[in-house]
Amino acid sequence: MGTSVQVTPLCGVYNENPLSYLVSIDGFNFLLDCGWNDLFDPSLLEPLSRVASTIDAVLLSHPDTLHLGALPYAMKQLGLSAPVYATEPVHRLGLLTMYDQYLSRKQVSDFDLFTLDDIDSAFQNVIRLTYSQNFHLPGKGEGIVIAPHVAGHMLGGSIWKITKDGEEVIYAVDYNHRKERHLNGTGLQSFVRPAVLITDAYHALYTNQTARQQRDKEFLDTISKHLEVGGNVLLPVDTAGRVLELLLILEQHWSQRGFGFPIYFLTYVSSSTIDYVKSFLEWMSDSISKSFETSRDNAFLLRHVTLLINKTDLDNAPPGPKIVLASMASLEAGFARDIFVEWANDPRNLVLFTETGQFGTLARMLQSAPPPKFVKVTMSKRVPLAGEELIAYEEEQNRLKREEALRASLAKEEETKAILGADDNASEPMVIDTTTTHDVVSSHGPAYKDVLIDGFDPPSSSLAPMFPFFDNTAEWDEFGEIINPDDYKINDEDMDRGAMHSGDVDGRLDEATASLMLDTRPSKVISNELIVTVSCSLVKMDYEGRSDGRSIKSMIAHVSPLKLVLVHAIAEATEHLKQHCLNSICPHVYAPQIGETVDVTSDLCAYKVQLSEKLMSNVIFKKLGDSEVAWVDSAVGNTESDTTRSLLPLPSAASPHKPVLVGDLKIADFKQFLSSKGVQVEFAGGGALRCGEYVTLRKVGPTGQKGGASGPQQILIEGPLCEDYYKIRDYLYSQFYLL
């Protein structure tokens, strides 16, 4: 039997709720993502609360609320204490996302689900990994290897590969196959035939018919049209995820056109976000990395974007048309909600949504067709206490302090009595022997005597009849006092703890945000309901950075998993993709409900093999990427273990085998290779590659297999036997390893 694998959704199946899934591999429990939504509904976390204490490791895929928003609450309230693994950008940007979420809600409500200290505590000990880094789990997870790979959706976003005994479990949600300005496409296509693929069906019913250049043109034209008539443009965005792509689009367009309209990026942590992003260039697209290597040009040195961390600065900005990118994208809280209420009644203004709003939020309501003409909005804000309220608050605080001081005093007295008070027998009257000076015969008997010191008989429970004294004698030499250097070293944990209480992990939190975090002035929240007239333009464009339905199907077919688990999509999309995969790709497709456990254990039997030294001495390895491959002809022998076999040399020479080409050819990469060799090449219909005048090359699936791409693919070269034919064939062979 293969590695035991069970999958249990805790949240985020058959709907658009946050992502959270329990995966057990040979008894080791992984929590794949720990998301929450912008409504922060604790009822969504009830399934997680039942298993939180059994989690052995947490893997985070993206730095937004839907993937990690519940982490501080789960660690504080639900008993989650497992180590957390993420890439560096997911860790840093996820931390800032949660800061922004907390500060946005604390300004409009008495938010108490978690605090800034809870956020810092949850993120303080995250174990950071780089892309493709194999991390061997210790202890209970011995034998399990985890590695993050490029997802292409957000900066640092990851597809997780979990390996045990040669079998792979792939967790791939919210990936994007397309290259963008700041991100490369996903690396999901590098996996072939994993034991289990866990993926989402979020965009299974959506087909993107617009090229990136056309979409960007429509995006910029729509914005320019409203600015030129004197209107303002609001883009509700996330804190540190997809907003980075939008900032680059606007920055580059403003640089090329020389527009004078100001652009503002407004979140509580905008300055810190860009500071971090500027140091993450190695996680970004090849074009950004090469630009920095050649010209030292950092794409996120934003010259046309002003970073703001409070709305007062925006209100004090020069009057006139402007673009504001503000959090939150859901419009449930944050600066974007306030700005929408102010700008909604002006028909010249534009609210441009770049992602589908979360279910049940104001953004989702405004994206409905047709959009509402009026919306009821509850507006809240936190104001300092003043007058009688402030006096009453201070009196109450003083009363609480006095009560606390009294309790502390009483507790100290009780402690003193416990230490210095007489024991049970000490309270009995003593019989004094007058014939013996300064001696006391106690109730312990005539043979037991204590020395009477100034009329004080120390009880048996007393440590000493005097105050403690410690003789601190220092050692000296000819240079002075001898010191221990370790006494003067600053402990890293103390440094982290000090930074945690100041709300600044790496000193990159700007002073204004830090002062807001540390603001302890007495205040209260006041609320009022408004009927907002929606006269402004409402437009939605797709900048979510997810693969569409056609690409999802193609990607799953290429990966061709042995077993497939579908999560995170509405019921219609989930069932659509499930039926497609059952009919064309994989006979084992599962779409479990919340709390339903599906056993996706592989039907294969995995054995460990031992290669004898005599056999290895005749093996010739060839390098293939980061690995080495070789063809081995051997006999299989038994060992003392039931799960281990021994490979032994054949008693006689092996018969010749057919040549085997090892490698994975990407047509687009081969096109660039041929162009570099001076071959005229272009794509023809059906994905074929026309090489020169006569030769055509195409990839096809093996005959008789479902889905075409679900098995090893064949490469066909068509054309007359001419010089070009043999030249193209030699170039093709050079892309593979011959065994």
Tell me about this structure.
The longest helix is centred in the middle third of the chain and has 34 residues, at 387-420. This protein has 4 domains: 5-207 and 542-597, Ribonuclease Z/Hydroxyacylglutathione hydrolase-like (Metallo-beta-lactamase, Chain A); 212-373 and 534-540, Rossmann fold (3-Layer(aba) Sandwich); 610-649, no CATH class; 667-702 and 711-735. The chain starts with a strand and ends with a strand. The radius of gyration is 34 Å and the shape is globular. It is α/β, with parallel strands linked by helices. The strands form 10 sheets. A 7-stranded mixed beta sheet has the order 6-5-4-3-2-1-26. A 7-stranded mixed beta sheet has the order 7-8-9-10-11-24-25, covered by helices on one side. The protein is built from 20 helices and 37 strands. It is 29% helix and 22% strand. Strand 3 (28-32), helix 1 (46-51) and strand 4 (57-59) form a beta-alpha-beta unit.
Indicate the radius of gyration in whole angstroms.
Answer: 34 Å
Tell the overall outline. Answer: globular
Helix fraction bin: 25-40%
Specify the biggest β-sheet.
Answer: 7 strands, mixed
Pairing-aware structural class of the strands and helices?
Answer: alpha/beta
Overall pLDDT score: 85
CATH class assignment of the largest domain: Alpha Beta
CATH architecture of the largest domain: 4-Layer Sandwich
Q: What is the number of helical segments per DSSP (H or I, 4+ residues)?
A: 20
- CATH fold-level topology of the largest domain: Metallo-beta-lactamase, Chain A
Number of strands: 37
Low-confidence stretches: 422-453, 495-505, 703-711
Strand arrangement in the largest pleated sheet: 6-5-4-3-2-1-26
Strand content: 15-25%
CATH superfamily of the largest domain: Ribonuclease Z/Hydroxyacylglutathione hydrolase-like
Cα separation of the termini: 30 Å
Domain count:
4
